[in-house]
Design a protein that fits this description.
400 residues, alpha/beta, Nucleotidyltransferase, domain 5, eight-stranded mixed beta sheet, six-stranded mixed beta sheet, 15 helices, globular
């Protein structure tokens, strides 16, 4: 099958056309500055590239340009739109939706209701769905939500200790994010250790500008670090992660900050950027820490410490740990951070081969466990687009 994967934002739309037989993208690109000018870049697997500033008033025009490129003589990879078997949409927040679903009126309304919980993401995704339906009305449209993988958490893991009536009224609970990535890498990790997911206790560390850690027991998520929003959990590029909630009220009072200003402070001025005072990029932080910058060293050390705490707590929650996975930008590429996280984790049976950790082939699954390590430690490159394509294929074949 050929599945078109669409990841639409408020003013952008990324896409990949994936052949599920080979599990490779045969074309991919991005439409940017939608509504404020417009530009599109497109690349095929055989190396043909197209890049141009072009007027894109709405997502509808952006998607039309995408389809034109995919079928064009110079830059196309398919003969007609009929070759697109289904379209899979990446949705950050599924709200009450607990499974991958075909788009219908009920599902659309559920995603619309979740806009209040993900105002920066869901509205753009809905625009992408609208554009796809307008251009391809007979093509199955499937939504794959980041929150769905985490819907298997038990109630005691997703519940916040607030008045129950308020939680019910406002749908307040731990939702979790990066679910598509956590699902993909946990399944790939099981394949790598020649076992079935249902037999394994896995901790997956998705570490990037946005980071989350998940406990996957028997192939199902039982806990995850992000919560009601993607702000909770370990500190991130510009996000503070978990803090004492009283700090928010205190800062509002002593700094006379509005709700909008507090939101900006916690989401865009904190994390690595706030601690280091210089950068939100882990590469810069590492370089400056190595040069003796005390604030950069503190930022890096704090992140390492928090990751270690989550790994330990999730091993306790699952009553064991078989596989530890590192993925995403920092997780896949920062060998020194992986080494620091795994240092002095012998109690959990975690030991890594430092040479294998530092000298590995990027883009491949790599076992960096030391001889005698009771826990397999793996680097697993994530591929959220492929996971969306596979989920879209599974559902469309099931419903046909």
């Amino acid at each position: 099958m050929k599945i078109l994967v669409v990841n639409a934002g408020s003013s952008s739309m990324k896409y990949q056309l994936i052949d599920t037989t080979t599990e490779k993208a045969i074309a991919k690109g991005i439409c940017e500055r939608i509504g404020i000018g417009g530009a599109i870049s497109h690349k095929t697997a055989d190396g043909r590239e197209f890049e141009e500033a072009i007027n894109l008033p709405t997502h509808t025009e952006a998607f039309a340009q995408t389809l034109e490129l995919l079928t064009s003589e110079a830059y196309g990879v398919i003969g007609s739109l009929d070759e697109i078997d289904a379209i899979g949409h990446r949705i950050v927040h599924g709200g009450a939706l607990k499974e991958t679903a075909l788009v219908n009126y009920e599902v659309y309304d559920m995603l619309s209701a979740a806009c209040a919980l993900a105002p920066l993401h869901n509205p753009g995704a809905l625009k992408g769905i609208d554009a796809c339906i307008a251009s391809c009305p007979d093509t199955p449209q499937v939504v794959v939500c980041d929150t769905v993988f985490h819907s298997t958490m038990p109630d005691y893991a997703y519940t916040y200790a607030l008045p129950a009536d308020l939680c019910k009224k406002h749908a307040i609970r731990r939702y979790g994010f990066h679910g598509t990535s956590h699902k993909y890498v946990s399944e790939k990790a099981a394949e790598a250790v020649w076992d079935k997911p249902e037999n394994l206790k896995i901790v997956t560390c998705h570490l990037g500008n946005g980071s989350s850690i998940s406990a996957v027991d028997g192939g199902k998520c039982v806990d995850t670090s992000m919560g009601f929003t993607p702000l909770e959990g370990v500190l991130m590029g510009t996000r503070c992660g978990s803090i004492d909630p009283a700090i928010v009220a205190y800062l509002a009072k002593v700094e006379n900050l509005s709700g909008e200003e507090l939101d900006d402070l916690l989401n865009k001025q904190s994390g690595l950027l706030g601690l280091s005072g210089s950068s939100a990029d882990m590469r810069d932080i590492t370089e400056r820490a190595n040069a003796g910058d005390k604030q950069a060293l503190l930022a890096k050390s704090t992140l390492v410490y928090q990751i270690k705490k989550y790994i330990g707590s999730y091993a306790a929650a699952m009553n064991g740990l078989d596989v530890l996975v590192f993925t995403a930008g920092i997780g896949e590429n920062n060998s020194r951070l992986r080494e620091k996280v795994c240092d002095k984790m012998d109690f959990f049976g975690i030991k890594i081969d430092k040479l294998a950790n530092r000298d590995f082939k990027r883009g491949e699954i790599v076992d960096i466990s030391a001889a005698g390590s009771k826990v397999k430690v793996l680097i697993v490159p994530t591929n959220e687009e492929l996971m969306i394509a596979k989920e879209t294929k599974r559902l469309t074949e099931k419903t046909n």
